[in-house]
Write a structure and sequence with these properties.
This protein is an all-alpha fold and about 180 residues long. The protein has helices at about 15-25, 30-35, 40-55, 60-75, 80-90, 95-100, 110-125, 130-140, 145-165. Helix 4 runs antiparallel to helix 5 (about 80-90), helix 4 (about 60-75) packs across helix 9 and helix 7 packs across helix 9.
Length: about 180
């Protein structure tokens, strides 16, 4: 059961009202997470900006979704996990790779390596070594792609932690 209430453009105030009204006019229904984030215009605005920015990431979306699945499997946000599994399926990621992403790996060594980096960033970023970064470069990852992994992880930490605090679950979601 949700712990925080959903807001609408009619019930939100200030900057949150404006953000929700803009989203509603462009997308129609506003999902539970976004409408609940509206309690904090700083959190909602930050989420929207980071989400838009990560849409321009160098990392391809199929890889990004597998990273998100791995992080959310660790963090425990069912709402996020369901969304990322659905997105991965829509992009043609097969069920075996989705299962591997849940376990924090991939059949493709380059993708397994980038997922491992993402999980290290999530769990213990101070433990990342020069050798690990060099190995990722040998897989063809650029500095930009490596930096983008931090953004993907940060976005997942934000959304997952928020949903867990707010008590949002797949059963409570009424829209994206």
């Amino acid at each position: 059961m949700p712990r925080l209430t959903r807001l609408t453009p009619d019930t939100a105030v200030g900057a949150s009202r404006d953000l929700l009204a803009d989203l509603a006019s462009r997308h129609g229904d506003i999902g539970d997470m976004v409408s609940t984030m509206a309690h904090s215009p700083a959190v909602l605005g930050g989420y929207l900006q980071l989400s838009r920015a990560m849409g321009r990431a160098k990392l391809d979306r199929r890889t990004s979704e597998r990273i998100s699945i791995a992080v959310q499997a660790q963090q425990g946000c069912g709402l996020c996990l369901d969304a990322h599994v659905g997105a991965a399926r829509a992009m043609g990621v097969d069920e075996a790779e989705i299962t591997r992403a849940h376990a924090g790996t991939s059949d493709d060594p380059a993708i397994a390596a980038i997922i491992a980096l993402a999980l290290r960033i999530y769990r213990e970023p101070a433990s990342i070594t020069d050798e690990q970064v060099a190995a990722l470069r040998e897989h063809g990852y650029s500095d930009r792609a490596l930096a983008d992994v931090v953004g993907v992880v940060a976005l997942n930490v934000l959304t997952g932690a928020f949903n867990l605090l707010a008590g949002l679950t797949p059963e409570s979601d009424t829209g994206a």
